[in-house]
Amino acid sequence: MAMLDEIEKRVENLRETAALMEQEKESLIEMLNTVQMNKDMLRLSISEKEDIDATTNRLLSRCRTVEVNVSTPRNNDQERSLKAANEQIEELLAKLQEDIANSRQTCRRFLNACNPNQPDGPIDQRFQSVLIGCTADDQKKIRRRLEQIFQLIERADKTVAQASMH
């Protein structure tokens, strides 16, 4: 029995390590996307921008070759909820290019739905009702993804503000 307890600890450790690796990959991809997005705002020569583009594309391709997957068992309802939550996040990302201010508010309301005990303003009720149907693991991943998107929006907004001042 002690041996099984030890194996169980190691299995949990493996899952946690793999989840951290997933997060690191997401973080690297998000940073590379930010670099690509912001290169146009910088006062660089065309060749420097092309170099940045080529390097970020190469790094993105290499990063995407790493596949780490920690599966989360889900029932049909949880699958539907996760799909609906991801669809709403994809809508947010699609609107990001055309309306940063509105996207920031939407993302903040989604994040508030992830933290109903300590919301930072209004909560998106529709998103929260979908989120509640997701597994605890999925809820954590969704919150992390939204935090990354919010940081991306903040950085993009600062870059646009700085570019308009020059």
Topology, pairings included?
Elements: H1 2-38, H2 46-64, H3 76-96, H4 100-114, H5 125-132, H6 136-165
Helix pairs in contact: 1-2, 1-6, 3-4, 3-5, 3-6, 4-6
List keywords for this structure.
Methane Monooxygenase Hydroxylase, Chain G, domain 1; 2 domains; 6 helices; single chain; mainly alpha
Could you describe the 3D structure shown?
The chain has 166 residues and is an all-alpha fold. The protein has two domains: 1-71; 76-166, Methane Monooxygenase Hydroxylase, Chain G, domain 1 (Up-down Bundle), CATH 1.20.58.890. The chain contains six helices and no strands. It has helices at residues 2-38, 46-64, 76-96, 100-114, 125-132, 136-165. Helix 3 (76-96) packs antiparallel against helix 5 (125-132) and helix 4 packs antiparallel against helix 6. The protein is flat and about 65 Å long. The mean pLDDT is 88.
Low-confidence stretches: none
Approximate helicity band: over 70%
Beta fraction: under 5%
The biggest sheet, with number of strands, parallel, antiparallel or mixed sense and barrel status, is: none
Order of helices and strands: HHHHHH
**CATH topological fold name of the largest domain:** Methane Monooxygenase Hydroxylase, Chain G, domain 1
Overall residue-averaged pLDDT value: 88
The counted number of beta strands is: 0
Q: Could you tell me the radius of gyration in angstroms?
A: 19 Å
Q: How many discrete structural domains?
A: 2
Structural class: mainly alpha
Question: In brief, what are we looking at here?
Answer:
This protein is mostly helical. It has six helices and no strands.
